[in-house]
Write a structure and sequence with these properties.
Blueprint lengths: L6 H4 L12 H5 L7 E6 L13 H4 L8 E2 L12 E8 L2 E9 L19 E7 L7 E6 L5 E6 L9 E2 L8 E7 L11 E9 L17 E10 L2 E3 L4 E3 L11 E4 L15 E6 L9 H24 L6 H5 L4 H5 L3 E8 L2 E8 L6 E5 L4 E2 L1
Parallel strand pairs: 1-3, 1-15
Antiparallel strand pairs: 2-14, 3-4, 4-10, 5-6, 5-11, 6-7, 7-8, 9-10, 11-14, 11-15, 12-13, 16-17, 17-18, 18-19
């Protein structure tokens, strides 16, 4: 989950609980999100936790996971990688988690799985909708899944009664489970996620070639001590459980996975020669969110929102250069603002973002 408190507690946080308060915090959100091109399956995939099909053998892994806060943090000591495939009805995921001590205890579906070591998937198939999906799984193949109406910091709610209909998953242990007396190698997760469970009525039940989604993957790794009977979470000198490690595919910049604008992008392709993800859209999206972050800092300092790009430029001069190819219009009314960003040369390249984090393309 990558948030220190529980899901239910977060649901009652005020809308801007995670607002950026300084330019230093803003700068932590500037790394480029990852991209991955999902190739089409060429044979049948059997969900058994192994990647021995021809399709899996021919595609690349993602980069190794990094600390959620970015490359300025220590490199995780254990490797984690993912690869993906698709057919018209499903997204397939395969994750490999290096682990010398495989353990897992939670067995009931929809318990808060990140209290165990886990692997997590965050999915946003519709780039123009605030909703997104979270799936957590542990080494026992116990799943928690939910849908978010929007991020917690904007007042979003987690619906744990929602299910990823017809999902299939399997785990494999290269070693033993919950046995502190030996050293293991890794565990894997394989998933088949039906597209029909991710899209709304009218959006279709199939993946379309060249479709682009937002996605991120997370690994929660606790510090465990070996005991005679198994494992126990390590505690500090005051008897408090040490915080978990958070390792991700596409770093966020802070310890909070619920920043979907900071996730990576995947594109579904038929061949490696397919068109790349549109850099113009990625640039527009990043510019819109940078204006949003700077507005939060400006209000924190001035008790009001900025009414011009020049005012935000006093916090971060580069924002003016970033907008040189756009017409930027501010609309303010007391405690509300909306900013419209339009390309000077391409009429269809435009976005609007407001103080509640609503973004429209």
């Amino acid at each position: 989950m990558k948030i220190i408190v529980s899901i239910l507690a977060l649901a009652i946080f005020p809308a801007l609980a995670f607002a950026q308060k300084s330019v230093d915090e803003f700068l932590q959100l500037q790394s480029r999100p990852q991209t991955y091109y999902v190739q089409h399956v060429i044979d049948s995939i059997h969900i058994d936790g192994r990647d021995d099909e021809t399709s899996w053998s021919k595609i690349p892994w993602t980069n190794t996971f990094q600390d959620i806060e970015g490359t300025h943090k220590p490199t995780p000591p254990l490797d984690t990688r993912v690869k993906m495939l698709w057919d018209k009805e499903n997204l397939y995921l395969f994750a490999k988690l290096e682990e010398p001590h495989i353990n897992g205890y939670l067995k009931q579906k929809d318990t808060i799985i990140y209290h165990d070591n886990d692997f997590e998937v965050f999915l946003k198939p519709n780039l123009r909708s605030p909703e997104y999906i979270e799936i957590e799984i542990n080494a026992l193949n116990t799943i928690m899944d939910l849908i978010m109406t929007k991020p917690y910091r904007f007042g979003g709610k987690a619906n744990l009664n929602w299910d990823t209909k017809d999902i299939q998953s399997a785990v494999y242990h290269a070693g033993s489970l919950n046995n502190p007396n030996d050293k293991d190698d890794f565990w894997t997760v394989e998933m088949k996620i039906p597209v029909k469970s991710l899209k709304h009525f009218g959006e279709g039940n199939e993946v379309k070639p060249n479709e682009v989604w937002k996605i991120n993957f997370s690994r929660v790794q606790w510090h465990y001590d070996q005991t005679k009977g198994g494992y126990s979470k390590r505690k500090d000198n005051n008897g408090k459980t040490l915080p978990e490690e958070n390792w991700v595919w596409s770093p966020i910049g802070l310890i909070n996975m619920h920043y979907p604008e900071r996730w990576g992008h995947i594109k579904f392709i038929d061949s490696t020669a397919d068109q790349l993800i549109d850099e113009r859209f990625l640039s527009l999206e990043k510019t819109a969110w940078n204006i949003f972050y700077l507005q939060q800092i400006y209000r924190n300092n001035k008790q009001r929102y900025a009414t011009s790009l020049q005012a935000l430029g006093k916090l971060y001069p580069k924002i003016i250069a970033d907008c040189k190819n756009y017409n930027v219009l501010f609309s303010n009314a007391n405690n509300f603002y909306s900013v419209e960003i339009k390309s000077k040369t391409e009429a269809t390249l435009k976005a609007t973002i407001d103080n509640r984090g609503n973004i429209y393309f």
